[in-house]
Amino acid sequence: MPPAPRAPAGDRVVEIGCGDGLGVTAAGQVIGFSARTTTKALRAGEPVVARACGPGELRLPAGQQEVSVNPGPAFTVDAVSLTAGTPVTGAATTTPDVTEWTAASRAVQIESGPERLLVVPESTNPGWIARIDGRELSPVVVNGWQQGWVAPAGVSGAVELTYRFDSLYRWSLVIGLVLMALLLVAAWWPFPLVSRSGRDTVAEPRTVPTGRFTLVAAGLGILGASWLLSGWWGLAVGLAVAVVGAAVPPKVDVTTTFVMMMAATVGLTAGPWHASGGYHGWEWWVQLPALIAVLMTGWLVFWSCDADEPGEAESDDTESPAARLPRRVSRLRSQWRAGSSMKA
């Protein structure tokens, strides 16, 4: 008996057996699944159809039932089909020719035929627009989450898919970076006030009410926001940033905010939404510097209630962190006890 023909190189057959973990559970019954595909289809992102092992029958009692599907660690669920009696054959599907496929611009070629759906197996996003011959197609949500459009009957040709918010998204990153650079320059730029006589003058500090309730609300608000954003790790980062922000001059705080936000912006620009290499916004090395920048801004405002007395500003920039931190904490404690305002 001749051996079975081998699959072409790079197109190895992948078989998932009934005992490999795929299955559906309903009304206390578990039905195992099996699937067969190829490595080429997996690399192309093609759907994998899993079929029930054995009879594949579920006996459901009357009333509302919960159906749970276990796709295993390597797959996600697109759709589940439960039929009563003889299974119904689904509509035929075809794969159009792809002529262009980038992060924000795509094009596929469709043939003439009856009204049908053009489906992209990605999460639906209102930023995507499909046009054919200058005519915009009606968007629909397929299977509860996939991006799709209705192709009218008799229409054929190239369908252009465009993400309309791509330019706005990238420009917002650039503008944010420029504004942060201007903030850094303003923080380090000397701004002496010149009187009409031509001599430098120093503005008198304003008195801002900062009572006990304000201090507690501000501190707990910053720590609470850090915990809501990143959990207990975020809370730990918030406490560390609070200590650093109190121990260094305000100019260093502003510089740290700029550097951290720039690092997050560069990381996000390297992997924006719909990038071919994946979205970087969920990576820790992008979120951590952004979190530090936001928290440093909040603590910078918080510690501004401990402004220096007139005449201390020049020597304050050269004060060591070991001396600055206890001095600021001591002033904050005195303000708490007095429940009064301090100069800022």
List the helices and strands and how they pair.
Elements: E1 13-16, E2 23-26, E3 29-38, H1 39-43, E4 50-52, E5 67-70, E6 97-101, E7 105-110, E8 116-123, E9 128-132, E10 135-136, E11 138-142, E12 146-151, E13 157-163, H2 166-188, E14 193-194, E15 200-201, E16 207-208, H3 212-247, H4 250-270, H5 284-303, H6 313-316, H7 321-338, E17 342-343
Antiparallel strand pairs: 1-3, 2-3, 2-5, 3-4, 6-7, 7-13, 8-12, 9-10, 9-13, 11-12, 14-15, 16-17
Helix pairs in contact: 2-4, 3-5, 3-7, 4-5
DSSP strand content? 15-25%
Q: Please tell me the overall pLDDT.
A: 79
Instruction: Return the string of H and E elements.
Output: EEEHEEEEEEEEEEHEEEHHHHHE
Overall geometry comes to elongated
**How many helical stretches?**
7
Please give a handful of descriptors for the protein shown.
5-stranded antiparallel β-sheet, 344 residues, alpha+beta
Report what the structure shows.
The longest helix has 36 residues, at 212-247. The chain is elongated, with a radius of gyration of 31 Å. With 344 residues, the chain is of the alpha+beta class. Strand 14 and strand 15 form a beta hairpin. Mean pLDDT is 79; it is low at 308-315 and 340-344. The chain is built from 7 helices and 17 strands.
